Amino acid sequence: MKLIKKGAEADIYLTKWNNFPAILKIRKTKRYRNLILDSKIRKHRTTKEAQTISEVKSFGIPTPIVYCVNLKKSSIIMQEIPGKTVHDLSDTKIIQLSKEIGKLVGIMHKNGIMHGDLTTSNFILYKNKVYVIDFGLSQKTIKSEDHAVDLRLIKEILNSAHAKIMVSAWKNFLSGYKSVVGPTNYAKIIHLVYEIESRGRYATVV
To answer: pTM for the full model?
Structure first.
């Protein structure tokens, strides 16, 4: 078992499941919380994440297969997607894939799922298919405000991590997103994105 990522909420390991490469995600104990409460929270979030991965897959979105959920350890073993994160692809490829990513996010929102951590590191290209990973912060919500928060985050990520191609990538993302959610919902959500940006703690991204 090899540690590949230490996060604030969970640690990610590369492991094996029935001799196949797999990912093990273990939610961390928060020592500042009451132990019983902490256990309940970690179990709830582990269950919710596993359920969301499976639910999103039922919408036709490529996600890892969940192999095993261990509530006692607050852990999930899932399929390893051995591709490249979109973050690590060439600028040209990111621009090209942004429309597909927009469609995937649109499908989630249309079906009442907010991803909660839309970064280019949480999309993996494998065999010409874009997979969505890491649903640890996901929520079931049909609120346009929540969907706007998702869009605002990926817009911010494009601006900070992919500044040179931000305009082209964002334009393609919005094109894909709009094609799924429809012009009315699109207009409402984009208006809310601008509202979020107008608040003091956010800087507007051109």
So the answer is: 0.91
So where are the chain's domains? 2-79, 84-198
Active site residues: 117
Collect all residues with Cβ–Cβ distance below 8 Å to 7 and sequence separation of at least 6: none
84-198 under CATH 1.10.510.10, yes or no = yes
Architecture of domain 2-79 in this structure: 2-Layer Sandwich (3.30)
pLDDT digits (tens, 9 = 90+) for 73-109: 999 999 999 999 999 999 999 999 999 999 999 999 9
Q: Which long-range contacts (CB under 8 A, 24 or more apart) does 14-18 make?
A: 14/80, 15/77, 17/67, 17/68, 17/77, 18/67
- 196 within 8 A of 149, measured Cβ to Cβ: yes
pLDDT at 200: 55
Coil, helix or strand at residue 49: helix
